[in-house]
Specification:
globular; 19 helices; six-stranded parallel sheet; about 55% helix; alpha/beta
């Protein structure tokens, strides 16, 4: 073949290849663009479907058609998983997040009105849409056996619990973290006998007699007196927590009266409830500074609620004027974010031993007396009450609104003392799990504490030795049945908790520790001793 013919043939072949490549590229671009459009169309269709399913689930719930509501939520879960393949999951989650809160609010209101069947369905939908259905049976953070059949659980748990109790008795288990920290050894409580305290705290929750009495008098003032401290108290409803309604003239009168009490009684230490920022009609920085300058009193800011970030501004506000900031929230924001580390002291919760003590008389198998505002508490209460009815337990599960018709602190203490088991729930917002006063009070009463899993509780006590932690509904119901049938194990745990509390968390040990830290604080120029000799005029 002549060379020029061969060259022309090769040239035509190259042009054909280029043409075919160009055609395929164009076709691929067209197909890719069509696929993108199809993907967007499917994504949009699924997003609309997700909106519709959530809306339909809500409307079905309103009509009482709970089965339809649940089916629509199951479809929602399926399509939401498919949607993750075709679109950005976060876009579809916006309506879901909103409905998650709405289901919870509806469940709460239905529970409040006594419609427990409807409320349980609403809480189930909330758990489904917020991906928390593991709370029914799967969620676990400890080594406790978790079989589905009770017979299997009882056999395995009996062995597990026996090993834990034996290990504690033989000192093979580590003590709680609080006791192993540096400087946690109790200070001689007799140091408090030389000092006089004045406490200021509200008499009522929300600073109003429409609500239940505040427990600060019981676990601050009463416990200090029991520890041998010379103490007095002042009700500060009108000069504390200024987020509530203010009465300026009455507040000024109370501030003047409190100052006069301090002038005449000459206390060494002034302790006040400090979960607020002061203003001109409340206890504030300037007011406390003047008390220190005039009477040499040391200031202790007691933060009974120091768990979340909300407490940091309060602690920062009182930090410059307080000699000591006391709390009992291990790992809380106040510990991590406060610049006044040297002034911050974590202590156990002081419990009034004259109200909370072991009582051989047991009226109820299981009790709960408290509010139902904390996260998922109504859900837990409904599940616990159903289990108690099924097991024919004598229960006293009574959630309340903190209203003034609630029993007094002494009556509440009687409920705890005369119960074989007490429920307690720690979850606040789905994330924080603080230890509450009820946990301390229950264990000091020698009553078995069934406690929702809480790292803060494990900071002070040993799980399955001093109390029983639960993570899921099945676990809670198994525990209730086990300890109803095995009172000997319950008694061993109760005795461990009561003895441990008396030994390490007594009123004398707690207040001795507080006084010991105060004694290490540099004294102001004016001390109570010198002020008693040279009385300062009232301002």
């Amino acid at each position: 073949m002549p060379l020029d013919n061969y060259a022309r043939k090769e040239s035509r072949r190259d042009r054909l290849k280029k043409s075919m490549r160009a055609t395929f590229r164009k076709l691929f671009r067209s197909l890719y663009a069509a696929a993108i459009k199809l993907r967007k169309a499917i994504s949009r269709l699924l997003e609309v479907s997700l909106h519709f399913l959530v809306e339909y689930s809500c409307s079905s719930l309103d009509r009482g058609q709970f089965r339809r509501s649940r089916i629509s939520l199951w479809l929602y879960q399926f399509f939401n998983n498919v949607f993750s393949l075709f679109g950005k999951r976060s876009n579809a989650q916006k309506p879901a997040d909103f409905r998650e809160e709405e289901f919870y609010r509806r469940g709460f209101s239905l529970f409040d009105s006594g419609q427990f069947i409807q409320a349980e369905s609403a809480f189930h939908l909330h758990l489904v849409i917020s991906r928390q259905t593991d709370v029914y049976a799967v969620r676990r953070t400890n080594d406790c056996p978790n079989p589905s059949r009770y017979a299997d659980f009882e056999r395995q748990f009996r062995r597990f619990l026996g090993e834990r109790l034996s290990a504690w008795q033989e000192r093979r288990l580590a003590p709680p973290e609080y006791l192993t920290e540096a400087g946690q050894n109790p200070i001689d409580p007799s140091v408090g006998a030389r000092l006089k305290f004045i406490f200021a705290f509200p008499q009522f929750i929300h600073n109003s007699d429409r609500y239940v009495e505040c427990d600060l008098k019981d676990h601050l003032y009463e416990s200090a007196v029991n520890a041998g401290i010379d103490a007095d108290y002042f009700f500060a409803d009108r000069i504390a927590y200024p987020v509530f309604e203010r009465y300026p003239e009455l507040a000024k009168q109370d501030l003047a009266e409190l100052r006069e009490r301090i002038r005449t009684e000459r206390p060494d230490v002034f302790v006040f409830a400090a979960n607020f920022k002061g203003d001109e009609f409340s206890i504030n920085q300037e007011y406390l500074h003047e008390l220190k300058e005039s009477f040499g009193v040391k200031i202790v800011a007691f933060m009974e609620d120091a768990w979340g970030e909300h407490a940091v501004p309060y602690a920062n506000y009182w930090g410059p004027v307080a000699d000591l900031i006391v709390h009992f929230a291990p790992g809380g924001s106040v510990e991590h974010d406060l610049p006044f580390a040297a002034k911050t002291l974590r202590v156990p919760y002081p419990v009034n031993s004259h109200n909370f003590f072991p009582d051989p008389i047991k009226t109820y198998d299981i009790s709960f007396f408290g509010t139902f505002y904390a996260y998922l508490r109504p859900f837990w209460l409904m599940k616990a009450e159903k289990a108690a009815d099924r097991l024919r337990m004598r229960h006293n599960i009574r959630p309340h609104h903190r209203s003034s018709d609630c029993p007094s602190i002494a009556e509440y203490a009687t409920i705890l003392r005369r119960s074989r088991m007490v429920l307690n729930f720690s979850s606040r917002d789905g994330r924080s799990r603080p230890i509450t006063g009820r946990a301390w009070q229950t264990m000091q009463c020698g009553t078995l504490l069934l406690q929702e899993e809480s790292p803060a509780t494990a900071h002070y006590f040993v799980p399955f030795v001093h109390y029983i932690p639960f993570d899921n509904v099945r676990e809670l119901q198994h525990f209730m049945e086990f300890f109803k049938k095995n009172d000997d194990y319950a008694r061993r745990i109760c005795d461990n908790a009561a003895a441990f509390s008396r030994q390490y968390y007594s009123e004398a040990a707690i207040w001795g520790r507080i006084v010991g830290h105060l004694s290490s604080v540099d004294s102001p120029a004016h001390t109570p001793a010198t002020m008693r000799q040279n009385e300062a005029p009232s301002r």
